[in-house]
Amino acid sequence: MQTRVGIIMGSQSDWPTMREAAAILDELQVPYEARIVSAHRTPDRLWDYGKTAVERGLQVIIAGAGGAAHLPGMMASKTRVPVIGVPVQTKALSGVDSLYSILQMPKGYPVATMAIGAAGAANAGLMAAGILAINDPDLAQRLDAWREALSASIPEEPSDD
Ligand code: RP5
C-alpha cells in the first residue's frame, strides 16, 4: 500500500512521543513511514525529505520536535504537503518552548499545531487520518467507528475504583 503519511522527528528521543501517532495510524490501517530528520543536526536530510515529499506520494507530514523546534516549520517551508506539528515535552521548559517554536509561523507557511506531548501526537495521527478520509470512504468508516468506540468507552457516572 502507498505510504501516505510521513512521521518525522528531530531525535530518537522524540520517538516515545511520536509513536503515539504511529499507534493511531496502525489502528486505522493507514500506511506511514517514520524517520529521524533533524532541522539542526541533519539539515540536508530535511531538505531532501521536503523536496521529494510530493513526488513520493506523501499527503500529510506529522512532524514532532522539542526545544528550538524548527523541524515542522522548516518542513512546511519546503513542501506544500500539509504539516501537522507536535511539540515534544522538554525537561527544561515542559514543552512550552516547543509549542511556541512550532505555533508561531509567519503568514504563508502554516503548521497545524497540536497539544504538547503524547496527546498531541495521538491527535496528530487522528488529524492525518481525518484529512485522508476526505477521499477514502473505507478509512472514513474506520475513523467513525474509532470515534464511536471512544465515546462508548466513557462511563456516564464516575467510579471510586
Ligand atoms: C530536538 O531536540 C529534538 O526534537 C528533541 O526533542 C530535542 C532533544 O534532542 P536529543 O538531545 O534528545 O537528541 O532537536
From TrEMBL:
Substrate binds at S11, D14, R41. The lineage of its organism: Bacteria, Pseudomonadati, Pseudomonadota, Alphaproteobacteria, Rhodobacterales. Pathway: Purine metabolism; IMP biosynthesis via de novo pathway; 5-amino-1-(5-phospho-D-ribosyl)imidazole-4-carboxylate from 5-amino-1-(5-phospho-D-ribosyl)imidazole (N5-CAIR route): step 2/2. InterPro entries: PurE_ClassI, PurE_dom, PurE_prokaryotes. GO terms for biological process: 'de novo' IMP biosynthetic process. SUPFAM superfamilies: N5-CAIR mutase (phosphoribosylaminoimidazole carboxylase, PurE). This is N5-carboxyaminoimidazole ribonucleotide mutase. It comes from Paracoccus sulfuroxidans. The keyword Lipoprotein does not apply. It comes from the Bacteria. Catalyzes the conversion of N5-carboxyaminoimidazole ribonucleotide (N5-CAIR) to 4-carboxy-5-aminoimidazole ribonucleotide (CAIR). Its EC number is 5.4.99.18. Belongs to the AIR carboxylase family. Class I subfamily. It is an enzyme of class 5 (isomerase). One of its GO terms (molecular function) is 5-(carboxyamino)imidazole ribonucleotide mutase activity. The keyword Zinc does not apply. It catalyses: 5-carboxyamino-1-(5-phospho-D-ribosyl)imidazole + H(+) = 5-amino-1-(5-phospho-D-ribosyl)imidazole-4-carboxylate. Residues 3-154 form the PurE domain. Keywords: Isomerase, Purine biosynthesis.
